[in-house]
Design brief:
The complex is a heterodimer.
Chain A lengths: L6 E5 L8 H12 L3 E4 L6 H11 L3 E6 L4 H14 L6 E6 L6 H6 L4 E3 L5 H11 L4
Parallel strand pairs in A: 1-2, 1-3, 3-4, 4-5
Chain B lengths: L3 H25 L29 H5 L22 E2 L2 E2 L4 H13 L5 E3 L3 H4 L23 H7 L9 E4 L5 H15 L7 E4 L3 H8 L6 H18 L3 E2 L1 E4 L1 H5 L4 H21 L4 H4 L3 E7 L3 H22 L5 H4 L3 E5 L11 H15 L4 E3 L12 H17 L13 H23 L3 H6 L2 H18 L27 H16 L2 H16 L5 H9 L4 H12 L9
Parallel strand pairs in B: 1-10, 2-3, 3-4, 4-5, 5-6, 7-8, 8-9, 9-10
Helix pairs in contact in B: 3-5, 6-21, 10-12, 10-16, 12-14, 12-16, 14-15, 20-21, 20-22
Classes of the chains: A alpha/beta, B alpha/beta.
């Protein structure tokens, strides 16, 4: 029996327009056999969570390069919990200083991937940590 | 350009060399790679000779600096006259903080200002908007009203500096604020020098700070062209940008092709709006990236000049030589910087600086070593500026014009990139122009394909990025990164609230309603926007009025 396909929402929260990383990750996850939904730019945490619930995803992978990660990433985790979707794996990536990572992890971001991370590492992380029903 | 007999001689001798010396060496040592290619996918031969350039017609293809087709440069003396403008893109937190950084940079010998705005400002939201929270002052300075702009340029004489502003969708509003600050300093608009980016097409295709749909956006752009040609004649009304297209992952050839295709769309729109091509074309400026493949980059800059000159003269029938000239700003490649071993970035930036200078840039921003990690610290900005100064004062490359011209390789590469760029431009023409090609997602898809192909090459170690996929070391977390305190946002919101209470709100309301009516007609909106900023209407309020009338852009998402 084949495994259930992992469903991922790749999302761009906030006003940041840098989507090169998000698009590369989206394609790499798709090439790795996952089903990928890309949110497009300028999504509020509410929009991201609504899409995650509606699409019934296993993973939300957010990319942000503007420095607003401490404000936006934890909000998504909180809203997911309010929707009863706390088992969705939430990941962050982008220009994120090392010093901010402990705060993000305390607030439910499972892992944070910084510049130079090979896509293979993200794929492996998702496969090992996804919590599928 | 070469004697036929001599070429035959070279051809025979090259063939012999390949069969003899080269074959012998290859039988013992293979070359490092089977195929050598530039980032644009152009095959790089083992050796270039006059044979690869035999069709070159010197006067037609290269000419003299300051003369058509400007392949060798736009000025007759280039850097023998004066160096390029050293212009570091800067801005963060509040107007006070940014003003301090500008005055520091001017003290350090920088010769022009370049303003970075935060994302809410770039997308036409005030700092008190819900969607702005978390972003205030992060990637640039927060500007809500004329009051912030007055603080930003406090003690900076606007008749003495030239200022570049990276502002696109709301460019009309920020330009109006700049003019209004100058008025308060007693400086008339005709004395102002600078540039607004004002390039909406690349925002749709690569950078993301759009507000309105293409049609009203193009109208605002042509309004600015017209207004400035009459009132701010020394202002560069647009900076048609390949920089962000390249950062989003395009190749060098795509960068030049998509940028010039955008340029064609702006010229078309302005002519359609009834403007005379020679009345505005001289104030168009360009903005390119400089990456690590030094010689390909130099060739790219030379192609951009040559191709634009031909487009303006042949396609648009421009008569004034100034309209044929492609003048450009360069920024070194942010996406080439690594978070790993950030000191290595200083070397990358030095190579990219050389590329820009050997390519004949008019102004340059050099990135700082820590930009893959955060906004640059003061120390790293200084090193970046010093890199330009070392190339200018110590390297000797500025003492003669276009020193790489005549290199068999560089001239051949120039021709090859031109060919590739022309193919793209023809394709885009066939799709109905750049705006249509973007609406159909064509340009975005091309860029995304190149970016993904590059990433796969890096991950397969076919492309080496030193310190990242080879020559790694164990590293400690970097210290001393610049952080923007979250209290900056709260303070900015408070300041805006106080201003909204103290200003003449009757005047604000009246100016905004006049603007709303004008937006419904085909009037030039610049005078109305200027009237609104003068009474301290906020950027968000002005942009909201136009949102009501123009609607908002809804992108197509291309993966």
């Amino acid at each position: 029996m084949s495994e259930k396909q992992i469903r991922v929402l790749v999302a761009k929260p906030g006003l940041d327009g840098h989507d090169r990383g998000a698009k590369v990750i989206a394609r790499a996850l798709r090439d790795a056999g996952m089903e990928v939904i890309y949110s497009g730019l300028r999504q509020t945490p509410e929009q991201i969570v609504a899409a995650a619930v509606q699409e019934d995803v296993d993973v939300v992978a957010m990319s942000l390069l503007s420095g607003a990660h401490n404000h936006l990433f934890p909000k998504v985790v909180k809203l997911l919990a309010e929707e009863g979707s706390e088992d969705v794996l939430v990941l962050g990536g982008g220009v994120i200083p090392d010093a901010d990572i402990p705060y993000l992890k305390e607030n439910g971001i499972a892992e944070v991937f910084t510049p130079g991370t090979p896509t293979g590492k993200v794929i492996e992380y998702i496969k090992n940590n996804v919590r599928q029903a | 350009m070469y004697d036929k007999e001599k070429l035959k001689e070279i051809s025979l001798s090259k063939e012999e060399w390949e069969k003899g010396q080269v074959a012998k060496t290859l039988s013992r040592f293979k070359e490092r790679k089977e195929n050598f290619e530039t980032t644009s996918g152009i095959t790089v031969e083992r050796l270039y000779t006059p044979l690869e350039n035999q069709d070159t017609d010197y006067m037609k293809d290269l000419g003299m600096p300051g003369e058509y087709p400007y392949t060798r440069g736009v000025q007759p003396t280039m850097y023998r006259g004066r160096f390029w403008t050293m212009r570091q893109y800067a801005g963060f937190a509040t107007a006070e903080d940014s003003n301090k950084r500008y005055r520091y940079l001017l003290d350090q010998g920088q010769t022009g200002l370049s303003v970075a705005f935060d994302l809410p400002t770039q997308i036409g939201y005030d700092s008190d908007a819900e969607i702005a929270q978390g972003e205030i002052g992060k990637v640039g300075v927060a500007i809500d009203t004329l009051q912030d702009m007055e603080t930003l340029f406090n003690q900076i004489p606007l008749d003495k500096v030239s200022t570049s502003m990276t502002i696109n969708a709301p460019a009309s509003v920020l330009l109006a604020m700049y003019i209004a600050v100058a008025e308060k300093q007693g400086v008339t608009p005709d004395k102002l020098q600078g540039t607004i980016q004002n390039d909406i097409l690349k925002e749709y295709a690569a950078r993301g700070t759009y507000i309105y749909p293409p049609e009203p956006s193009m109208r605002l752009i042509t309004n600015i062209f017209e207004f400035c040609s009459k009132n701010v004649p020394n202002w560069n009304t647009i900076s048609i940008s390949g920089y962000h297209i390249r950062e989003a992952g395009s190749t060098a050839a795509q960068e030049v092709a998509f940028t010039l295709a955008d340029g064609i769309a702006y010229v078309d729109a302005a002519i359609k709006a009834g403007l005379d091509v020679d009345g505005f074309a001289g104030r168009l400026s360009f903005f390119f990236n400089a990456h690590n493949d030094l010689l390909e980059e130099v060739a790219k800059f030379r192609v951009a000049r040559r191709l634009w000159a031909k487009i303006m003269r042949e396609r648009f029938g421009a008569k004034n030589p100034r309209s044929w000239m492609l003048r450009f700003h360069t920024q070194t490649g942010g996406s080439t910087l690594t978070a790993q071993q950030p000191e290595n970035n200083i070397v990358r930036v030095a190579i990219q600086t050389l590329a820009a200078v050997l390519g004949g840039t008019q102004s340059l921003h050099t990135n700082s070593k820590d930009e893959a990690l955060a906004l640059p610290s003061e120390e790293s900005v200084r090193i970046a500026l010093r890199t330009q100064q070392i190339v200018a004062y110590e390297s000797g490359v500025c003492d003669t014009i276009d020193p790489l011209a005549g290199s068999y390789y560089v001239e051949s590469l120039t021709n090859e990139i031109e060919k590739k760029a022309l193919e793209y431009i023809e394709k885009i023409d066939a799709l109905g122009g750049a705006a249509k090609a973007i609406e159909q997602g064509y340009i975005q898809k091309e860029i995304a394909d190149s970016s993904y192909a590059y990433q796969k090459e890096v991950e397969a170690n076919e492309r080496i990025v030193v310190g990242m996929n080879k020559f790694q070391v164990e590293e400690k977390p970097i210290e001393g990164l610049l952080r923007v305190d979250p209290s900056v946002g709260e303070a900015q919101v408070k300041k805006l609230k106080a201003l909204k209470e103290s200003r003449d709100n009757v005047a604000v309301k009246s100016k905004l309603s006049v603007l709303r009516e004008a937006a419904k007609t085909d009037a030039n909106l610049m005078p109305y926007i200027l009237d609104a900023v003068r009474v301290y209407a906020s950027e968000g309020e002005i942009c909201d009025v136009m949102r009501e009338i123009f609607g908002e852009y809804r992108p197509v998402e291309i993966l």
